[in-house]
TrEMBL record:
Native organism: Limosa lapponica baueri
Name recorded for this polypeptide: Uncharacterized protein
C-alpha cells in the first residue's frame, strides 16, 4: 500500500485527523450505530422482536429512545452486538436519534462521533 506523500512522518492518529477520517474503532462503531438505527426504525414496528429492548423510563435527559442494558454473567457476551452498542446509543444526543431517515442520522452521527469515544 502506498503512503500519501508528505505524511510518512506522522503518527496514525495525526494522519487520520489530517485526512478527516475516523479510526477503525470509530468506523466499526458508526456501522453498529447505523445498523441499530435501522433496526429500531423498522423492527420496533413489529411485535415480538427482541434483539434490543427499549428502556422504560420517564427521565428527560439525553435521547428519548434509550435502550436497556442487559445483565449477563459471562464476559463472553459483552462482545455481542446487542450489548456493545447500547452504551454508545444511549449517549447519542436527541437530535441524532429522533430523525426519520438514515441519511440525516448519518450526518448527525458523524458530528456526535467526534465527541463520543
Amino acid at each position: 500500500m502506498k503512503m500519501i506523500g508528505g505524511m510518512e512522518h506522522l503518527f496514525y492518529e495525526d494522519r487520520l485527523r489530517e485526512l478527516g477520517l475516523f479510526s477503525l474503532e470509530k468506523r466499526r462503531l458508526r456501522g453498529d450505530l447505523m445498523a441499530t438505527f435501522q433496526y429500531l426504525k423498522v423492527a420496533y414496528r413489529k411485535a415480538g422482536e427482541g434483539l434490543l429492548t427499549r428502556a422504560c423510563s420517564d427521565r428527560t435527559r439525553g435521547n428519548g429512545f434509550k435502550l436497556e442494558e442487559g445483565r449477563f454473567r459471562s464476559d463472553l457476551r459483552k462482545k455481542f452486538f446487542s450489548v456493545r452498542v447500547v452504551r454508545h446509543w444511549n449517549r447519542l444526543p436527541r437530535e441524532a436519534v429522533d430523525v426519520p431517515f438514515l441519511e440525516v442520522f448519518k450526518t448527525r452521527l458523524d458530528g456526535a462521533l467526534s465527541n463520543l469515544v
